[in-house]
């Protein structure tokens, strides 16, 4: 199979002289099996015409001028398995770091849930400037992939760091982001996001889960070649196009949606922050403010993860443990009590974040092992989690 078979790559071009190399890059990405769609900033079009990329990619190029459909960049953001900005100028990187959306490429990078990779290309003094150094550090901290730059002679006549990597090197780097189909064909069912338990028709009991961790794991599993179904509580996130997504509100709906899909599931990953309790009898009409205190009777919700792990036969079961203290002790208890194959423990709340944030740190426990994944962007942690999980899954399936 080709390195980038069936991958959707958005090639985003910002305005630097290296843009001429991106024409060759578009062709080489396709030779590696990818479908390529191109988006260009205004200044990129000063260097190469959209027509060149339209002819090479076989798809219309998205530019501010071409955007008859004002949502074209959003559509691309959803379509992408990877957004590769090549060349990425110093100015573009600075705008990316500041979350600007003042051109279509920057807006696409903000709007996508796919990994974003940049191939910096600039004069060596610009690369060495402290402002650029700080921006590059922030890129790395946020889990934005960076390919290069290389050292060598530059279009401006100087020699040093700042050359964009050669097109074939960029293709190889892109391929390393996709996990070469480690989980090819494996069916994975994932829960993500918060549940909401109605109190009355307009009020709910819920929690701070954003769904970011669950959606990142869904994407990483997809990139590893798995068939992914996501059962998601209410979030503002857009799932990757090829993930089958089922939206639910309550814990009971999540329980039902999961159990309906277990026959075809080889791995179950419970990342949702499921409400442990629900209101016994939600009011039929909006509760009126009257007495100084209000008592609401809560009853226990079913434990979705434990119920999946109790089945026979059952899928490989991975849980998450969200704790505010005693992380390892409490997580190990959950691993044992719910009879899981693996648990990913995270500290949540207060200054440690974890819930609702873009980054996190995980402690991966199995009955016989422990691995710490240091703080990183959730997209990066998700890839590491999938890698470790795949090792344990295949060890269990095919014991030595
Ligand atoms: O969504 P984000 O903002 O990115 O935040 C990510 C996260 C903090 C929500 C995530 O990393 C996480 O820790 N998810 C699990 C949250 C949780 O409910 O943990 P718990 O320790 O209460 O539950 C243990 C496990 O049992 C979890 O896998 C949970 O999905 C599952 N569970 C819990 C209760 C229940 N009724 N049914 C369940 O399946």
Average residue-wise pLDDT: 93
Q: What gross morphology would you assign?
A: globular
CATH topology of the largest domain: Rossmann fold
Taking the alpha carbons of the first and last residues, their distance comes to 27 Å
Q: Total strand count, please? A: 19
CATH class call of the largest domain: Alpha Beta
Bound molecules: ligand PMT
| Beta-strand share of residues | 15-25%
Give the count of structural domains.
2
Structural class: alpha/beta
What is the CA-based Rg, rounded? 23 Å
Report the uncertain regions.
none
Strand order across the largest sheet: 12-11-8-13-16-17-18-19
The helix tally amounts to: 14
CATH architecture label name of the largest domain: 3-Layer(aba) Sandwich
What's the CATH H-level superfamily name of the largest domain? CoaB-like
Q: Helix amount, in percent?
A: 25-40%
Largest sheet: 8 strands, mixed
Entry summary:
The chain is an alpha/beta fold. The chain has 14 helices and 19 strands.
């Amino acid at each position: 199979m080709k390195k980038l078979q069936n991958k959707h790559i958005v090639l985003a071009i910002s305005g630097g002289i290296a843009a001429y190399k991106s024409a060759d890059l578009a062709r080489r990405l396709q030779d590696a099996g990818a479908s390529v769609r191109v988006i260009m900033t205004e200044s990129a079009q000063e260097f190469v015409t959209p027509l060149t990329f339209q002819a090479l990619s076989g798809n219309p190029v998205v530019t501010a001028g071409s955007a008859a459909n004002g949502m074209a960049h959003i559509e691309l953001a959803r379509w992408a398995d990877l957004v590769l900005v090549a060349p990425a100028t110093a100015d573009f990187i600075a705008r990316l770091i500041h979350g600007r959306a003042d051109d279509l490429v920057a807006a696409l990078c903000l709007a996508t849930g796919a990994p974003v990779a940049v191939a910096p290309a600039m004069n060596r003094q610009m690369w060495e400037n402290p402002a650029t150094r700080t921006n590059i550090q922030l890129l790395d901290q946020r889990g934005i992939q960076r390919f290069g730059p290389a050292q060598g002679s530059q279009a401006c006549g100087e020699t040093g760091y700042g050359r964009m990597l050669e097109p074939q090197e960029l293709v190889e780097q892109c391929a390393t982001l996709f996990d070469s189909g480690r989980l090819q064909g494996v069916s994975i069912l994932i829960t993500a996001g918060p549940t909401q338990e109605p109190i009355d028709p307009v009020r709910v009991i819920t929690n701070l889960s954003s769904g970011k961790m669950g959606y990142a794991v869904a994407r990483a599993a997809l990139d590893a070649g798995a068939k992914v179904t996501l059962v998601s509580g209410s979030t503002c996130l857009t799932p990757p196009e090829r993930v089958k997504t089922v939206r639910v509100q309550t814990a009971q709906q999540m329980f039902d949606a999961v159990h309906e899909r277990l026959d075809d599931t080889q791995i179950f990953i419970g990342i949702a922050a499921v409400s442990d309790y629900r209101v016994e009898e939600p009011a039929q009409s909006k509760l009126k403010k009257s007495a100084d205190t209000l008592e609401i009777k809560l009853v226990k919700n079913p434990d979705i993860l434990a119920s999946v792990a109790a089945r026979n036969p059952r899928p490989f079961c991975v849980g998450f443990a969200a704790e505010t203290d005693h992380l390892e002790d409490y997580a190990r208890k959950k691993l044992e009590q719910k009879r899981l194959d693996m648990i990913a423990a995270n500290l949540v709340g207060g200054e440690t974040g974890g819930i609702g944030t873009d980054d996190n740190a995980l402690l991966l426990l199995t009955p016989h092992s422990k691995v710490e994944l240091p703080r990183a962007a959730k997209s990066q942690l998700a890839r590491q989690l999938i890698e470790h999980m795949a090792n344990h899954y295949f060890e269990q399936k095919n014991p030595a």
